[in-house]
């Protein structure tokens, strides 16, 4: 039995002549929040899709609880307990909270050909699960379109956990949220990890990642700049790594130059 | 039960929540528009055509039969529309299925039941072709099924002329009587009941004393049956949830493990099969197949589904609504005959009704998604 819930070893992914990912390695332990940071175009999306079974890696291996696995489809990853919550959340705003919560995995009752979708039971579970995170959905048959962004994010995460996720991959869960909503979601993520889940938190917001993360992997142009644990990494260091350090420095120099020109005029 | 509601009530005491009335909940149902529309149409014709015999047993069965024929395809079209796609080839499929029944039965000497099964297997094939093309190419189903509309209608005409030298295939009536399955699509039910009504002089009689309306046509039973089955599927089964999900957000649905391609393909098969049921009813009733049968029916089916509350963008709608949409359609198209209004106005009415329905549906959708 390996220490890690899941290991992604030396993953590479090519699209034609484009090297989208090269030799990326990540390991996630139980109860750990690993933040995956990177600027736009760093390969975050490709990495998530590879981790969640949408793309097959061209090189490297995925090891789930000590066993080498090949994901043929997102379903395979899901069956192994690796659940991804995408930015679009995979919620249908016209459908009810309950119907969304159980979308694709509807609880059934009855027997044989007369099995029906147990909507009453499902309503109860959905209301209860949302209640546990402190979100009071007055009526689980109301459309998801009526919920706030943070509530939707929590619904999507809580759904993944309810269906047996051991590893949660969260794609930019706080990017579209205000300060308060973001903190609600982050709190929920920490709570989930403290209950033994492994979390991969993908974000470009260092201020959201740094307080909750245990370790940090930075992607830059398809390559990993390495994984650091929190104690080896200051917030400033992370910030500069993420933005490609020099580039920000360069920007600062340029800004000073502009200032100087202005003043001399 | 009372304890349960109590606890929910207590829990939901949030000062930021308004109480939502039962009426508002009802207003958010997709079939409401069509239900209200049906009532309005009945009141309207009740007033201006109430004494013309439109609402006698015979007249009622007449307009119900027209509604039922359309309803059979509208319900399947509604399911497909909820699943996020269109099928414009339904009308052509009706003509095609008709000759698939008639030609083998008349020219090749097949037993009628075998021809009927043949027509249904062709429907499954056509539906599958539509579905797989849409799913694989990612092209809008509008275009794919528009192509199928021409292909099927053309093939129907060309093949029929090639084999029979004409565009109509008559002579099926004699085959119906001894056939083991033809009764499913033809004939009338509850004849005894109608006879009894006649004998009690509750409904109009012919001169020989038999009732004018002799029974409930098979198509009406199909219409009601399909509405029940489709509603059950949508509301009570896993597959129903997948239909909503596939139409509402196909990527999201796929990401949580809904087999979107399979759902869509099966819905396309559903519309083609419904078109074949329609064809069976018509062909066996008339005793002949006509290559032009079903012309423009695809659009009427879409009108009925939209009037019934289906969103053109998918993910929302109801089978009951589509059934009522068809009822409005049938009632008005027959009702206009009973009034002195020029029947040319029927299409104007249809267009206006569709516009109103779309505007109304759009408003409902905003209500549902924005919590107003």
Domain tally of chain B: 1
| Strand numbers in spatial order across the main sheet of chain B | 1-4
Oligomer: heterodimer
Q: Over all CA atoms, what is the radius of gyration of chain A?
A: 21 Å
> What's the helix-strand series of chain B?
HHHHHHHEHEHEHHHHEHHH
Please characterize this protein's 3D structure.
The complex is a heterodimer of chains A (265) and B (372). Chain A is of the alpha/beta class. Chain A has a domain at 4-93 and 163-233: 3-Layer(aba) Sandwich (Rossmann fold), CATH 3.40.50.300. Chain A has helices spanning 44-51, 74-79, 97-101, 119-132, 149-162, 179-194, 206-212, 235-242, 246-264; strands at residues 4-15, 18-29, 33-38, 59-64, 67-69, 82-85, 108-109, 116-117, 167-171, 198-203, 215-220, 223-229. Chain A has a six-stranded mixed β-sheet, with helices on both faces. In chain A, helix 5 (149-162) packs parallel to helix 6 (179-194). The N and C termini of chain A lie far apart (69 Å). The mean pLDDT of chain A is 85. Chain B has 372 residues and is an all-alpha fold. Chain B has one domain: ABC transporter involved in vitamin B12 uptake, BtuC, CATH 1.10.3470. In chain B, 70% of the residues lie in helices and 3% in strands. Chain B is built from 16 helices and four strands. Chain B has a two-stranded antiparallel ribbon. In chain B, helix 3 runs parallel beside helix 15 (319-338), helix 5 (90-107) packs across helix 13 and helix 10 runs antiparallel to helix 15 (319-338). Chain B is globular, with a radius of gyration of 22 Å. Residues 1-17 of chain B have low confidence and may be disordered.
